[in-house]
Design goal:
Bound molecules: adenosine-5'-triphosphate
Helix content: 25-40%
Radius of gyration: 18 Å
Structural class: alpha/beta
Number of helices: 9
Oligomer: single chain
CATH class of one domain: Alpha Beta
Number of strands: 10
Strand order of the largest sheet: 6-7-8-3-9-10
């Protein structure tokens, strides 16, 4: 049995109050997993800890069997992190940026160039491949940041709100790229406020509230749990309300 892509055990983080509260979560290799939760539920905080950008107060993070807290470099080699605020060098073109990122990851140059061209084409950035990113819209920058995250062929892709702010065509391009990666065995974890995206794309959905996972499963399993409601929005609001009542 290959190890799961991600195992979080007893993960905890407090700022002025506890934000992540003894979270246990396992995501199998090859899954497309969506993390849902109301504003402030701790989604970004969890992803930042997994990506090694924030140190947990307690708990363990295992990425394909590697202890990410003990060996963050080895864990980071296997994953990509795409923030909801894309950071791209404005004075580089998309192809220069991808070349730079591939260099950081020591991707073999010919492979890196081929991957960069593929990504630029798939994400519809072809006509802008040689323009400076400084003049790009937020959606275009999001796509460049996503391409940068994928250029080293990560096995685990972690995305925070990857579709927010994208127009329908761009959202479709990003979804297609992610679907293709999942079809080739890559694991994707993403947060989203767009319930329809979670409903259509994710194999499993985790609902977070108050720093804990209050429900998890396929859409059909979640639906079964709350009764007869039909949309994910109904299910989500019901689960969060129950979570709040229990707390
Ligand atoms: N660096 C920080 N310092 C202090 N408080 C923080 C910090 N980062 C996050 N928080 C707080 O932690 C809580 C959870 O934030 P987080 O961004 O993880 O939530 P989220 O579920 O991603 O929310 P949203 O859906 O609004 O993006 C919030 O109350 C936020 O104010």
């Amino acid at each position: 049995m290959p190890p799961p892509a991600l195992v979080l055990s007893g993960l905890a983080k407090a700022f002025d109050r506890p934000v992540v509260n003894g979270l246990d979560l396992t995501i199998d290799a090859g899954e497309f997993y969506a993390l849902l939760g109301p504003n402030g539920a701790g989604k970004t905080t969890i992803l930042r800890m997994v990506a090694g950008l924030l140190r947990p107060d307690a708990g363990a993070i295992s990425v394909f069997g590697i202890d990410a807290l003990a060996d963050p470099v080895a864990a980071k080699r296997l994953m990509a992190w795409v923030s909801d605020e894309p950071m791209v060098y404005e004075r580089l073109t998309p192809l220069e940026y991808l070349d730079f990122v591939a260099g950081l990851w020591q991707v073999e140059p010919a492979r890196a160039r081929a991957a960069a061209h593929d990504l630029v084409d798939w994400l519809g950035l072809g006509p802008h491949a040689n323009e400076l990113c400084g003049g790009f819209s937020k959606g275009m920058l999001q796509k460049v940041a996503l391409a940068g995250a994928l250029v080293h062929d990560p096995r685990l892709i972690i995305l925070d709100e990857p579709l927010t702010g994208l127009d329908a065509g761009s959202a479709r391009q990003v979804k297609d790229v992610l679907r293709a990666r999942v079809a080739s065995g890559v694991t994707v974890i993403m947060t989203t406020h767009i319930l329809e995206v979670a409903e259509r794309m994710a194999e499993r959905i985790g609902v977070l509230s108050g720093g804990r996972l209050i429900a998890e499963g396929t859409l059909a399993e979640l639906r079964e749990r709350v009764g007869q409601q039909s949309t994910l929005e109904d299910i989500f609001l019901d689960l969060v309300a129950r979570g709040n009542a229990a707390a």
